[in-house]
Each structure stands twice: as C-alpha cells, then as structure tokens.
Amino acid sequence: MTFLAKLRSSSLGPMLWKEFLQMRRDRFVLAMLMGIPALQLLLFGFAVRTEVRHLPTVVLDQANTSESRALVQMLVNTQNFDVIARVHGRDDMEKHLADNSALAAVVIAPDFTRNLKRGRPGTAQVIVDGSDPLTASAAISGASLAARAGASRFSDGVSPPPAIDIRVRPRNNPGLKSQVFVVPGLVAILLTLTMVAITAMSIVREREKGTLEQLIVTPIGKIDVILGKILPFVGVGYVQMTVVLLLGHLVFHVPLRGSILLLYVITFAFIVSVLGMGLLISTLVKTQTQAMQLSIFLLLPSILLSGFMFPRAAMPRVVELIGYLLPVTYYLEILRGILLKGVGIADLWRETVALSAFGLVLVLVSVKRFAKTLE
Fold first, then answer.
1. pLDDT beyond 90 at 131
2. Contact at 8 Å (CB) between 103 and 121?
3. What is the pLDDT of residues 289-330, one digit of tens each?
4. What number of other Cβ atoms are within 10 A of residue 68's Cβ?
5. Whole-model pTM above 0.85?
6. Which of 18, 176, 305, 375 could pair covalently with 323 via S-S, beta carbons 3.0-4.6 A apart?
7. Band of the pLDDT at 39, cuts 50, 70, 90?
8. How many CB atoms sit inside 10 A of residue 349's CB?
9. Is 105 left (phi over 0), alpha (psi -120 to 50) or beta?
10. Coil, helix or strand at residue 254
11. Vertex 323, ends 318 and 327: CA angle to 5°?
12. Distance CA 149, CA 168 (A)
C-alpha cells in the first residue's frame, strides 16, 4: 500500500484535508502566508545594510584655502561624507548636529595650510554622533582614508610627505557602546509590539466571545466603549517605558541627559499612535490569528526601517521614505535626542508634530471604522 493510500485510510487524512480546506477559505490568512514573505524579502533585502555611506556633513573651514578645500573634497571622495552645508561658526554647526540635519561636522583649523607649508602636520577634526556606533565607524574609516590621500596629494615628491592629522571625536557615546544606542530604541519597539498586538487581539477576542456586542446594548456610548478598551493600555505603556529606562540607566549606564518630563509628555502622542494602529488592525481582521499575523507584519518594518538596528543613512532613498510612514521612526529620534544628546523641544518639534499628527489621524480613522463594525 502506498503512502498516499495509507494516509487516506487513516484518520489523519481527513483531518489534513479539513485544515487545507479551512486555510483556502480564509483568504486573508492565505494571502498573508503567500505574499508577505516575498514582499518582506524584497523590501528588507534592499533596506538592511550595515555599511554606512554618505553621512550628511557640514563643514567649518577656518583656513579657507585651496589646500583646505582639497581636504574636504578628499573626505567626500571616500563616499562616507556628503557635504550639505558650509557653516561660518560653531553655533551654526551645533544647530545642524542637534536637529539631526547633519550627522557629522568637519572642522579645519585656521593654521592648516600654514602648518603644511612649514612641514608640520595639518590638523582637522571630524565631529560625529557616536550614539550610533556604525555611523561613527564610518566617519573614522573615511577620515583615515582622507588622511592617507592628503599626505600623497600635498607631497612635493622630494621632501617626506606632510602628515594630515584628522581626529575623529564621537559625541554622546565616546566609547561607541552598542547598548547606549540599542536600549533607548527598545522603549519604542517594546511599546509598539505590546500596544499594537494587545489592543488588536483584546478587541478581536471580545468580538469572538460575543461580549463586545453585550457592551453595545448597554447605555454606554460606542465612543466610551472604544476609549474604555484602549485607555488602560496608556498606563501600561508608561509602566513599560519606566522599567526599560530605569534598567537601561542602572544596568547598561545609558545616560539620561535631557528632560525626562518632556520625554514622558511626548510619549503620550506615540502611545496614542500605536494604540490607534492596534485599533485599526482590529477593524480589518476577524480572528485573533489574523490580528497577530498583521501585527507581526507591521512590527518587522518598525524594527528594520525605523533606524532601531540599522542606520537609515545607509538605506536606499525609496526605503528611507517608507520609514517616514512609521510613527516609531520619529519616536526614536525623540528618544535618542533627549536621552543621549540632551536636546529640547526646539530641536525636536518637527518629530513631535509628525508624531502627534500620526496619533490623531490613526485614532480618528480607527474609531470611525470601528464604530461601523459595531453597527
């Protein structure tokens, strides 16, 4: 008797056939099982890159000579730096670094050319945000390549080539510890994971059990039912955030340089955003399995495209733009800006406005759709 014949005659065969038929009827799950792996492979295959190139860079050229301009061009030629602006003072330079419009700054000393002509090392400095170790490593590598190229470029062929001393100074994380970069991001990822999945599954579970319909026939309004289901998770989110921040500071020595009160205030907009995502998922699915699968589908881009693990500066432009559609992208900038850099709302207002807009739109759309499903 063949294997297929034995399978048909056993009790296992009908059970397997039933499950395949059930899977075929659930077209939503079938489409996710077939289409999502291919979509994620193409998206993340292009997005996930550990080599960082083309760091947005500002230049403070205090020498302003042909030699200093040649040095800047050598830095650009390494493809690790892209000059976005030339500044005329340290205040302007600091502003670019604080609001993340630039990830690196090149400062060339006033006596750069004079020292070269006298046979002394020409000095320059590269200031880089060390909170991301991969970005800092790219700056160190590019500075080393430019220094070697500069020694050959300024050599007269007779005397020993002059030394080019380019010193890289990582800020915010001088030791380039990966925990300092990762732990603040865990606040955003854990909130996204728990708030989206728990909200979506909690509401779907109520619908499956029939208890949600029982609430509807009570004198409680639909909006009150929805808010009553999601608002308790706001407190849960703040508890999770507090635990991660305390453990990160005490165990991994993650600095808390900025205003913690400001961080807690802005976090409300992020929690509302992810709760809105969970509520929206609950209006799109019918079972807890579907809710979990769709939550995981949204979680992976939040990890890989937001800058949590891999620098967004290393991503192709199209993929980088997709990252702007994720609330966690803006919240990561806020977390690392406040905790690691100590910046305030003046440098984070764009991210705060974007996050608040996400929260407002997601909640309004989700509540409207959810009210229709209740009806």
1. no
2. no
3. 778 878 877 887 888 888 887 777 777 778 788 888 899 999
4. 22
5. no
6. 305
7. low
8. 11
9. beta
10. coil
11. 155
12. 16
Are the beta carbons of 181 and 337 closer than 8 angstroms? Answer: no
Q: Is 211 left (phi over 0), alpha (psi -120 to 50) or beta?
A: alpha
15 by Cβ neighbours in 10 Å (0-12 / 13-18 / 19+) ranks as exposed
Structure tokens at 347: 């440098």
| Burial class of 92 by CB neighbour count within 10 A (0 to 12, 13 to 18, 19+) | middle
Q: In which residue are the tokens 């630039």 written?
A: 102
CA angle 296, 297, 300 (to 5 degrees): 80
Q: Are the CB atoms for 129 and 89 separated by under 8 Å?
A: no
* Rounded CA separation 19/146 (Å): 62
How far the first Cα of the chain sits from its last, in Å, is 56
Beta strands in the chain, from DSSP E residues, in sequence order: 55-61, 81-86, 104-108, 122-129, 164-171
The residues facing 86 across adjacent strands are 59
Burial of 117 (0-12, 13-18, 19+ CB in 10 A): exposed
Identity of the amino acid at 59: V
State the Cα angle at 138 between 132 and 139, rounded to 5°: 90
DSSP 59: E
Q: Is the dihedral of CA 275, 362, 217, 206 positive or negative?
A: negative
Reading the block at residue 296, the tokens are 């995981």
**Residue 171 identity:** R
Q: Which of 65, 80, 55, 172 is nearest to 115 (CA)?
A: 65
Please state the length of the chain.
375
Pull the structure tokens for residue 269: 């907009």
195: amino acid identity, one letter: M
Cα 155 to Cα 59, 127, 230, distances in angstroms:
24, 26, 68
In this structure, the strands spanning 122-129 and 104-108 are: antiparallel
Which is it for the CA torsion 40, 45, 51, 56, positive or negative?
Answer: negative
